[in-house]
Design brief:
16 strands, alpha/beta, 12 helices, two-stranded antiparallel ribbon, 8-stranded mixed β-sheet
Length: 479
C-alpha cells in the first residue's frame, strides 16, 4: 500500500468520531474513560505513594532464581551455580549478578503458596490477590463475574494525577498464543468503569517471547519466529472504525494526531469532563514525555537496556514520577516465563540478562531520584516451577520444569520494605513452604497496607454492593 495514502472516513459525524476515538488513539478504549475520574477515596498516608507490580507471566522457577537448592540431587538443583549476595548466607542464581550486588535494596519472600497449577487460574489468583476462583470462572476468557485485578482495586482508591489514570498496565495485555485474553487483568465485578488503562506498545505475536528485539525467542525454537516486533510507546493506532487502510508512515499519523488534538482543544467546550480528561491526556507534554521512552537519551536507554524489558521499566519509573498509583509491568507477554523445556539456555541467554539489567537499574534509578522509599516494587509470577526437572521431547529439545503453585519466590523492594531480608523458606527441594507460608491474599494486603489503605476499606461493585478490600494480612516482617 502507498504509505502516503489518505485514510478513508466512515459515514459518521466527524466530531463524534473524534470524541469517541480520542483516547483510543493511545490504546485506551471508551470503557476506560470512566477510570480517569476521581474516586470517592484517595490512597492513605502509607509509606508508599505508588506500586510497581512486575509480573512474570508463565511462572519463574524459584529453584533456578531466588531459592536455589545446591545440595539437592542434580535432577532438582538444575544446571546453574549460585553466587553470594550482600545478605549473609543467602545465595541466588549465578546469572543474576547485578541484582545480587544490590541485595541490600530488596528482600525475598520464599514461601508464597496457592493451590493452582493452571496458567489462567494462576494468573487470576496472582493478579487479583484471591486464591478462591469466582463462581463461573472461565479459563478461556475474562468475565464480568471475575474478581477485580489488583490494578483495578488500587486504581479505585487512587485518583488521576497529571492527566494520567491511577492504574496503568504495560506494555501490553496478556494474550494466549491462541488469541484468547487471559482473565484476571480487568475490573470484573467492580465494573469495566474501573478497568486499568492498558498501554498496547506492540502488536501481539504468538511465537514471539521475551525482551525483543535483542532477546526475542520462541520456547520451542520453531522456524520463522518473531523478528518483527517494535516497541511503540504509546501505540498510536486509530480506532477500528477509522481504519480504512493500514497507515504505513508513522510520521503521517503523528501529524494527524497533532492536528486532531488542536481541533479537539478548540472544540471541547461541549464535552463532558471525561472527554476533557481524554483531550488533556493527548495534549499534556508531561504525559508524552512519560511514554516516549524510545526517544529517551541514549545513555538512559543503554543503562536500562534497549529492549522491551528495559523500556517497560523505564516507562514505569516515569509514570511513578508522574504520580500513577499502580503500574503493572508485564515482563514479557503471556507465558514468556513458561519454561517447560529448553529452560536453562533460555533463562541464561534470553530472560535473565535483560531482567537483571533492567530491574537492578530500575531500583537504583528510583533511589537516585528519591522515589524508591515511596514506591513499593513487587515481582511475582502466577506460580513457581516443579522441583524436579522434566522432559517433553515431543515439543522441546532440552528439559525444563512444569507448573507449580505450591511455592514461589517473590521479590519486594522500596515503599518501606527493609532490604536484605529473607522471609519464609521452602523445604529442602523447593517444593513446599517450610516456614511462614503466605497466600496471595497476604500478598495483596501487603500492597494495600503499604499505600495506607485501612483494613476496613471497601469498594463498590457495578451493582453498588460493598466489598471488603482486605482478604489477608500484610507481611509485616518485610517492613
Amino acid at each position: 500500500m502507498n504509505p502516503t495514502c489518505v485514510l478513508s472516513h466512515p459515514k459518521i459525524n466527524r466530531r463524534k468520531a473524534l470524541q469517541a476515538g480520542a483516547v483510543s488513539l493511545l490504546g485506551l478504549g471508551a470503557n476506560h474513560l470512566a477510570s480517569l475520574k476521581a474516586q470517592a477515596s484517595n490512597v492513605g498516608p502509607g509509606k508508599a505513594k505508588s506500586i510497581v507490580y512486575i509480573f512474570l507471566s508463565g511462572g519463574l522457577s524459584q529453584i533456578d532464581s531466588f531459592d536455589p537448592k545446591p545440595d539437592a540431587p542434580e535432577n532438582i538443583r538444575g544446571e546453574f551455580q549460585t553466587i553470594a549476595t550482600q545478605i549473609p548466607g543467602v545465595r541466588i542464581c549465578e546469572h543474576l549478578p547485578k541484582l545480587a550486588a544490590i541485595s541490600n535494596k530488596w528482600s525475598l519472600l520464599r514461601s508464597l503458596t496457592h493451590k493452582s497449577n493452571d496458567h489462567s487460574a494462576g494468573h487470576h489468583i496472582m493478579l487479583t490477590g484471591r486464591s478462591d476462583l469466582p463462581v463461573g470462572f472461565d479459563a478461556s476468557k475474562p468475565k464480568p463475574s471475575d474478581w477485580p485485578s489488583l490494578a483495578s482495586q488500587v486504581g479505585y482508591f487512587g485518583k488521576p494525577r497529571n492527566n494520567l489514570p491511577p492504574a496503568i498496565v504495560l506494555p501490553e495485555r496478556l494474550v494466549h498464543y491462541s488469541g484468547r485474553v487471559i482473565p484476571g487483568q480487568f475490573a470484573g465485578i467492580m465494573g469495566n468503569r474501573s478497568d486499568p488503562w492498558f498501554l498496547e506498545a506492540s502488536p501481539y505475536e504468538a511465537k514471539s517471547y521475551g525482551a525483543y528485539p535483542k532477546y526475542e525467542f520462541d520456547h520451542q525454537e520453531r522456524e520463522g519466529t518473531g523478528g518483527n516486533r517494535l516497541f511503540k510507546a504509546p501505540n498510536l493506532t486509530l480506532p477500528e472504525y477509522l481504519q480504512g487502510g493500514r497507515l504505513m508512515d508513522r510520521s503521517i499519523l503523528r501529524k494527524q494526531l497533532d492536528s486532531q488534538v488542536k481541533s479537539m482543544e478548540n472544540n471541547s467546550a461541549g464535552f463532558d469532563r471525561f472527554h476533557h480528561s481524554a483531550i488533556a491526556l493527548l495534549a499534556d507534554s508531561k504525559v508524552k514525555n512519560a511514554f516516549d521512552v524510545t526517544n529517551a537519551p541514549q545513555s538512559v536507554q543503554e543503562r536500562y537496556g534497549k529492549n522491551a524489558f528495559g523500556w517497560s521499566l523505564l516507562m514505569a519509573k516515569n509514570l511513578v514520577q508522574a504520580g500513577v498509583s499502580l503500574v503493572q509491568v508485564n515482563l514479557g507477554n503471556n507465558e514468556t516465563w513458561d519454561t517447560h523445556g529448553n529452560a536453562f539456555p533460555h533463562l541464561k541467554d534470553k530472560l535473565y540478562p535483560p531482567t537483571d539489567q533492567a530491574l537492578s537499574t530500575f531500583l537504583l534509578d528510583l533511589e537516585e531520584n528519591g522515589l524508591l522509599s515511596q514506591t513499593l516494587v513487587v515481582m511475582a509470577g502466577e506460580f513457581g516451577r516443579t522441583p524436579k526437572i522434566t522432559s517433553l521431547p515431543k515439543h522441546y529439545k532440552l528439559p525444563g520444569r512444569d507448573h507449580w503453585g505450591a511455592v514461589q519466590s517473590v521479590l519486594f523492594a522500596g515503599g518501606g520494605v527493609q532490604g536484605g531480608r529473607v522471609i519464609g523458606s521452602s523445604d529442602k527441594i523447593g517444593g513446599f513452604p517450610s516456614t511462614e507460608p503466605y497466600t496471595p491474599e497476604d500478598f495483596a494486603a501487603t500492597m494495600f497496607d503499604a499505600l495506607g489503605l485501612p483494613p476496613e476499606a471497601v469498594w463498590y461493585d457495578s451493582t453498588q454492593r460493598p466489598n471488603i478490600l482486605y482478604h489477608g494480612k500484610p507481611i509485616r516482617s518485610l517492613f
